[in-house]
Amino acid sequence: MVIKQSLDQKLSELFSSFGYRHITLPVLGPTELFLRKSGGEMAAQIYDFADVSGNQICLRPEFTAPIMRHYLDHATEESLPVRWHYGGPVFRHNLRNSTAGENRGQFTQIGAELIGTDTVLADAELLILATRILQELDIRNCTIRIGDLAILNSVLDVANLSERARDFLVSQIPLLAGGNWEPDRLEDRARQLNLIEIDSNGSGLSLAIADLDDEQARQVLSGFLGWTSGESVTSASPYELDDPTLSEKRDIATEHWGNLGRRDPSNIVDRLLRKIRGGDQLTHFRQGIELISELISIRGSAKDTITRTEDFMRRVGADLSPVQRLTELVELLTSNTNRIISEDDLELDFGLARGLAYYNGIIFDVNHPSLSEPLGGGGRYDDLAKALGSEYNLPALGFAYQLESLVQLSPCDTVISEVDWGDRVLVATGNKKYFEDVIRKVNELYQTGVAAEAFLEVKSIDEVINYAKYRNSKEVVWIASEHESTIYQTGYA
Asked: Are residues 107 and 216 in the same domain?
């Protein structure tokens, strides 16, 4: 326990040296908070119950959603970006990784969240911080596996899928990547969830109501149900008898609703309308499966995987901007000048997916050969704020480690470098092409015992100095070119 507390304190100091402030959040929270865009896996793991007022509450299963909720409720006036770090217990049913061997269903999470910037430099900062923790704790032989949901979504755009169908396919990626699901089984499951049109050839019901509002469509479908409710063909009108698709319609109704006469007609009409308009065309869905299956088969070393991914996306006609951004990120992390992450320790894998559905950009896992489950991980979640009630999306990303696993893997006598974070230096540039130099300078300062924070946007020097004063930074290192930097005093005392 002493070792665990000591390590927690040392990591808190490390986070602070990078400009992250500590935040404390309640252990209990409304269950709904953790279910919005969280995915089915999280819903199955939550310890939830009703309080004395009948409200559904739960023990905290993770920190990201509560932190975003806290920002939206209490911190929107703060200057962006906002950096917070945290540590504390989280609770989940059937926790697979029980490294510590005790308190199964409860473990300690430590991590950081960066809210308010969508730059690739922010992505790099989080991965650098996650890597720095491993280096300071002398935890070796870790592999960082990176996926990218922006690339997945760019590929799925080609298939013109709805958001529901797209989310479903992304949620099934672990099964597809593991070879546990065949496309036919996936299609059957999609039908059960009403993700595929029941009349996908475009010649029947969907075509008949395509240009009608819901009320008009209900009238048409009511007539359709009259034709298929078990009445004899001989009682049909001459128009019905001449209809070549009558038997097809009757078969559809029988397959999906059985004996229609046993159900309320209005309910049947509403259900049929939802099925027709709520599903994707079968051809589009099948194309989505094919595209995703090919993409997740591309994995391996960073540079080779990026080349193959870009070739694939060009071939299918997908937007290339997400893979170009990923290329920039990998170059920032693995360049010869930075040497933050060895290219040998970095793997790209588009089969990497989260149980939390709010991720929309890069995602990553940190793996150690002695553990059956990831040591930690994180990613970008720009859509979470809107899912929690915000009027607008808010760029954000974060990561977390399991503290018990860090304790197990780190030597007991590990000491984190002493850093005076009270005199933090802000490093910035006015040109995006010098992001790499910003990263290098931050690392140089940290190695000499100086806390340094990267300014994540491209702004003027005056704007940077104003931000530095807000962050209580006495100095700004301004990167003007690859070989030129200037130190500015902010006047903060």
From this structure: no
| HEC string for the chain | CHHHHHHHHHHHHHHHHCCCEECCCCCEEEHHHHHCCCCHHHHHHCCEEECCCCCEEEECCCCHHHHHHHHHHHCCCCCCCEEEEEEEEEECCCCCCCCCCCCCCEEEEEEEEEECCCCHHHHHHHHHHHHHHHHHCCCCCCEEEEEEHHHHHHHHHCCCCCHHHHHHHHHCHHHHHCCCCCHHHHHHHHHHCCCECCCCCCCCHHHHCCCCCHHHHHHHHHHHHHHCCCCCHHHCCHHHHHCCCHHHHHHHHHHHHCCHHHCCHHHHHHHHHHHHHHCECHHHHHHHHHHHHHHHCCEEEHHHHHHHHHHHHHHHCCCCHHHHHHHHHHHHHHCCCCCCCCHHHEEEECCCCCCCCCCCCEEEEEECCCCCCCCEEEEECCCHHHHCCCCCCCCEEEEEEEHHHHHHHCCCCCCCCCCEEEEEEEEEECCHHHHHHHHHHHHHHHHCCEEEEECCCCCCHHHHHHHHHHCCCCEEEEEEECCEEEEEECCCC
**Looking at the structure, do residues 401 and 483 belong to the same domain, yes or no?**
no
Give me the pLDDT at residue 260, please.
46
Q: Quick one: pLDDT at residue 258?
A: 47
pLDDT category at 206 given cuts 50, 70, 90 is: low
221-230, 337-346, 467-476, range with the lowest pLDDT: 221-230
The total number of structural domains that make up the chain: 3
Q: Please check whether residues 114 and 16 belong to one and the same domain.
A: yes
CB neighbours of residue 399 within 10 Å: 23
Residue 272 lies in domain: 205-278
pLDDT(262) > 90: no
215 & 107 share domain: no
pLDDT tens readout for residues 355-401? 556 788 999 999 999 998 899 999 999 989 998 989 989 999 999 99
Above 60 in pLDDT, residue 420? Answer: no
pLDDT of 327: 96
Q: Has residue 253 got a pLDDT over 60? A: no
Residue 40 forms part of a structural domain? yes
pLDDT at position 73: 95
54 φψ region: left (φ > 0), alpha (ψ -120 to 50), beta (else): left
